[in-house]
Amino acid sequence: DAGITQSPRHKVTETGTPVTLRCHQTENHRYMYWYRQDPGHGLRLIHYSYGVKDTDKGEVSDGYSVSRSKTEDFLLTLESATSSQTSVYFCAISEGTVPYEQYFGPGTRLTVT
Amino acid sequence: GQNIDQPTEMTATEGAIVQINCTYQTSGFNGLFWYQQHAGEAPTFLSYNVLDGLEEKGRFSSFLSRSKGYSYLLLKELQMKDSASYLCAVQPGTYKYIFGTGTRLKVLA
């Protein structure tokens, strides 16, 4: 199994508060991703990183920011959480070589009340 | 726009064969993936197709037709543990992946 951890695994927070989710990998993979998964929508890409300090937006990036200061860590920040950001968040990593598969972390269940 | 379609739910009997279809329309194509996701767990990689044809891996096979924007995942000798969601994903460019909403498969005894 790929060495990916996410913290926290569960979080309940109030509307308007900032929240940071952490993804940590021990595989030294170049590419890291943040997805959210909601019923009826499947996995949707929020942001991704293709190297230290190199990040870009996905399809649902509004209200989220990311940072990657080290190869092993990719942080997702909700600057001011809203109820629409209640979701399960998955981090994924990829080596960037064929077959380009992604390995997913265990997920973080975030509830915004 | 970019779109991936798969059936929402399928039911099959233990020991049978089931085919899960996926159609896609994307701006580019670098490969198609199938993932398995058990309830409450993370997705896990099953297969990768970049060229037309069939890729076989044990009880699971995946087929791709790039000209038709079509793929299927074939599961043989179904087992109860195969009850899960199956996600079809396309890599339209170098870094990004687009996922379908997933097909929930129920295997009945």
Question: Which structural traits does this protein have?
Answer:
heterodimer, A: 113 residues, mainly beta, B: 109 residues, globular
Topology at a glance:
The complex is a heterodimer of chains A (113) and B (109).
Chain A: E1 4-7, E2 10-13, E3 19-25, E4 31-38, E5 42-51, E6 54-57, E7 64-70, E8 73-78, E9 87-94, E10 102-104, E11 108-112
Parallel strand pairs in A: 2-11
Antiparallel strand pairs in A: 1-3, 3-8, 4-5, 4-9, 5-6, 7-8, 9-10, 9-11
Chain B: E1 3-5, E2 9-13, E3 18-25, E4 32-37, E5 44-49, E6 53-57, E7 60-65, E8 70-75, E9 84-90, E10 98-99, E11 103-108
Parallel strand pairs in B: 2-11
Antiparallel strand pairs in B: 1-3, 3-8, 4-5, 4-9, 6-7, 7-8, 9-10, 9-11
Description:
- The complex is a heterodimer of chains A (113) and B (109).
- By secondary structure, chain A is mainly beta.
- In chain A, 0% of the residues lie in helices and 58% in strands.
- Chain A contains no helices and eleven strands.
- In chain A, β5 and β6 form a beta hairpin.
- The radius of gyration of chain A is 13 Å and the shape is globular.
- The model of chain A has no long low-confidence stretch (mean pLDDT 94).
- By secondary structure, chain B is mainly beta.
- In chain B, 0% of the residues lie in helices and 55% in strands.
- Chain B is globular and about 40 Å long.
- Classes of the chains: A mainly beta (113), B mainly beta (109).
Radius of gyration of chain B: 13 Å
Counted beta strands of chain B: 11
In angstroms, what separates the terminal alpha carbons of chain A? 34 Å
Class inferred from helices and paired strands of chain B: mainly beta
Shape of chain A: globular
Rg of chain A (C-alpha, Å): 13 Å
Q: Please tell me what the overall shape of chain B is.
A: globular
Largest interface: A-B, 25 and 21 residues
Question: Could you name the ranges of chain B where pLDDT drops below 50 across 5 or more consecutive residues?
Answer: none
Query: Could you give the distance between the termini of chain B?
Result: 41 Å
**N-to-C series of helices and strands of chain B:** EEEEEEEEEEE
In this structure, how is the largest beta sheet of chain B organized? 6 strands, mixed
Oligomer: heterodimer
Estimate what percentage of residues of chain B fall within beta strands: over 45%
Portion in helices of chain B: under 10%
What is the helix tally of chain B? 0
Q: What is the percent of helical residues of chain A?
A: under 10%
Percent of sequence in beta strands of chain A:
over 45%
Overall mean pLDDT of chain B stands at 95
Question: Which structural class should the secondary elements of chain A be placed in?
Answer: mainly beta
Uncertain runs of chain A with pLDDT below 50, 5 residues or more?
A: none
